[in-house]
Specification:
Elements lengths: L15 H24 L1 E7 L6 H12 L5 H29 L8 E2 L5 E2 L1 H12 L2 H4 L2 H4 L1 H12 L13 H7 L8 H12 L22 H14 L1 H8 L10 H6 L1 H5 L7 H6 L7 E8 L2 E8 L18 E7 L15 H13 L9 E6 L1 H7 L19 H13 L8 E5 L5 H22 L4
Parallel strand pairs: 1-5, 1-6, 6-7, 7-8
Antiparallel strand pairs: 2-3, 4-5
Helix pairs in contact: 2-18, 3-11, 4-10, 7-9
The structure holds guanosine-5'-triphosphate and magnesium ion.
The site of magnesium ion (MG) has 5 residues, from helix 2.
Organism: Kluyveromyces dobzhanskii CBS 2104
Keywords: GTP-binding, Hydrolase, Lipoprotein, Magnesium, Metal-binding, Myristate, Nucleotide-binding, Palmitate, Pheromone response, Transducer
GO biological process, one term: pheromone-dependent signal transduction involved in conjugation with cellular fusion
């Protein structure tokens, strides 16, 4: 006697022993379910510098396993691409003047005093005067995230060092304006502070021509098309675009400008693959592939985004590291003193050899191979990598060189798998992503002791 707790049970629901046993069985069952789920759950982390193509790889996964993009995404990209197309043409015009490139759209006087190039000049003026934010539905384009990115990318008054961290609110503080009240005020603030005013100094020699009012979409599209196809200076400037920051898909936007001008235009798959929306933070996307669930984490790659990466390092099955190999002659958007491949080397070196990924396989995507193959014909790799042994135009030697450069960073024994990719090409990516998912699913089964 004296022992209060009895090990004997009367079998009733009120019996605390029965209740505890049931609760513990339930817990064990749940844990078992969780363990089974984890056995079939694969986690892929997409890492790499900004603009290397991570989100484009994810878009291909969506095309393969999610049946494509939503109507909302298609509308959003339509807005973003239209804005980027106008701004990219404006960038070319302004950069031509900085680089001393003569444009066919510059007005000239003949010896007899006649003005020539009037038609093309008007196209140039239309682009310089276009108010991009009036042209789009900023909310559909992504709201404050879009506006933030727009200001960082296109306002020449934003100091370069601000690009690393600035948010629209920091920019507002710098300008002594408080934009926090509501979205309408933010829009107003952007228009006032960062609208077209900054570009007006560049409208040269037009005093004797009819002033330009806000143009319609059709007029802007026509102007872009004319400048792109008729102005040799614009092409010359485009060919020197490694010397400044220009959207990687600008030529695609210009080639297709008329369709993007339509206000109700719904983007097709290729438009979305070519379009660019910078990733902020990290997105999680789940794909059901056979019995497995593949979770893909897409991380923003610009410097200011990388501090968020570490929170996702735990329990990763494999890292897909994306390198835009074509960018060997380009500088970072965040810091125009740093070569983009040099940045990728430092980044990969740190990740490959970090304690987080001691046993985690790495898959390297040498991406933008399509651009690389064209670029090596005119931009010598040796200018940026003095030890490079190949000749101008030899893309195979170029790819092998960069592949061995990246592989040499591995100071561990873990395997590294390399794929040469063109992330915008759905057919080739289907094959590559099939191989990658097979590999990581096998890897996961091995780890769980199933095979
Ligand atoms: N031609 C070509 N363009 C590519 C390729 N891969 C990506 N792009 C383009 O490069 C741009 C940037 O691609 P994203 O996928 O947004 O780059 P990201 O690595 O996600 O960039 P962050 O989100 O800033 O880290 C987009 O305009 C893509 O269409 C490629 O293989 N070839
Ligand atoms: Mg991205």
């Amino acid at each position: 006697m004296g022992c209060v707790a009895s090990t004997e049970s009367d079998g009733s629901e009120d019996d605390p022993f029965i209740r505890n046993k049931k609760a513990s069985d339930l817990l064990e069952q749940k844990l078992q379910q969780e363990r089974n789920k984890n056995k079939n759950e694969v986690k892929l982390l997409l890492l790499g510098a900004g603009e290397s193509g991570k989100s484009t790889v994810l878009k291909q996964m969506k095309l393969l396993h999610h049946g494509g993009f939503t109507h909302r995404e298609r509308m959003q990209y339509g807005q973003v691409i239209w804005a980027d197309a106008i701004e990219s043409m404006r960038t070319l015009i302004l950069q031509a003047s900085k680089l001393g490139i003569d444009l066919d759209s510059d007005l000239k006087h003949t010896p007899s005093g006649h003005l020539v190039n009037v038609g093309l000049n008007r196209c140039k003026e239309i682009i310089l005067h276009a108010n991009t934010l009036d042209q789009i539905d900023a909310r559909m384009a992504g709201g404050s995230e879009f506006l933030n990115e727009y200001v960082l990318k296109y306002n020449s008054t934003v100091p370069k060092k601000k690009r690393q961290s600035a948010s629209v609110f920091e920019l507002a503080r710098a300008a002594n304006v408080n934009p926090e009240d509501d979205a309408a005020e933010t829009d107003e603030f952007l228009q006032e502070k960062f609208g077209t005013a900054g570009y007006n100094n560049n409208t040269l020699e037009t005093s004797d021509l009819k002033p330009i009012d806000q143009s319609t979409n059709e007029e802007i599209a026509h102007a872009i098309k004319q400048l792109w196809t008729q102005d040799k200076g614009v092409r010359q400037c485009y060919n020197r675009s490694r010397e400044f920051q220009l959207e990687g898909s600008a030529s695609y936007y210009f080639d297709n400008i008329e369709k993007f001008a339509r206000v109700d235009y719904v983007c097709d798959d290729m438009d979305i693959l070519k379009g660019r929306i910078k990733t902020t933070g990290i997105t999680e996307n789940s794909f059901k592939i056979g019995p497995s669930t593949v979770k893909v984490y897409d991380a923003g790659g610009q410097r200011s985004e990388r501090r968020k990466w570490m929170h996702f390092f735990e329990g990763i099955t494999a890292v897909v590291f994306v390198i835009a190999v074509s960018e060997y002659d380009q500088m970072l958007f965040e810091d125009e003193r740093v070569n983009r491949i040099h940045e990728s080397i430092i980044l990969l070196d740190t990740l490959l050899n970090s304690r987080w990924f001691v046993n985690t396989p790495f898959i390297l995507f040498l991406n933008k191979v399509d651009i690389f193959q064209e670029k090596v014909k005119r931009s010598p790799i040796r200018t940026w990598f003095p030890n490079y042994p190949g000749k101008l135009g030899d893309s195979e030697t170029g790819l092998k060189y960069f592949e061995s450069l990246f592989l040499s960073l591995n100071r561990s024994n873990k395997p590294i798998y390399v794929h040469r990719t063109c992330a915008t090409d759905t057919q080739s990516m289907r094959f590559v992503l099939g191989a990658v998912t097979d590999l990581v699913i096998q890897q996961n089964l091995k780890k769980s002791g199933i095979i």
